Amino acid sequence: MKNVLIKLMLLVMSVSFLASCSSHNTQSQNTGIGAVTGAVVGGLAGSLVGSGAGQVAAIAVGAIAGGVIGGYIGHSMDSSDNTKMSQAMTNNPPHKTSHWKNKKTHMTYNITPTSNTMAYNGNSTCRKYTATAISSNGQRHTTKGIACLQSDGSWQTVRS
Predict the structure, then answer these.
(1) Which residue among 48, 69, 75, 131 is the one 20 to 30 A from 6 at the CA level?
(2) Is 151 in a helix, a strand, or coil?
(3) Is 137 helix (H, G, I), strand (E, B) or coil?
(4) How many Cβ atoms are within 10 Å of 80's Cβ, its own excluded?
(5) What's the CA dihedral at 29, 129, 123, 73 to 10 degrees?
(6) Domain boundary assignment for the chain
(7) CA distance 149 to 145
(8) 3-state secondary structure (DSSP) of residue 65
(9) Global pTM?
């Protein structure tokens, strides 16, 4: 059960992290993307707990907690972070990590493409990656997955 919840939270972070990679998104849009993704995954996590009225309560609590956590991660990224993330996914060779610290949010980010460009589910421009966000208090959130380049130039996670 704990393992399933950890995987679901990593999914929230992964989707929030890369879905907000569009250089066209504002911080407000990133917060919304993270919050919605977190709420959905949190609700799914809650549905795995208990049964009956207890399960309904767990779904509600999971959705709220997921929304808050996802919103926080999405909010922590601004357009400069999104640009750096997209540049790393587009330009870095496999296993070359890009690191940066956002002076406004005090978040530190690492993104490492872990494969060459490959085809995945009908998209010809996808890459495996590992991404880490580190808060100013040292909390570390690491995700791994596959992201694909979208027509607008953003990278979107398609598998975590």
Answers:
(1) 75
(2) coil
(3) coil
(4) 13
(5) -10
(6) 2-76, 82-159
(7) 13
(8) helix
(9) 0.57
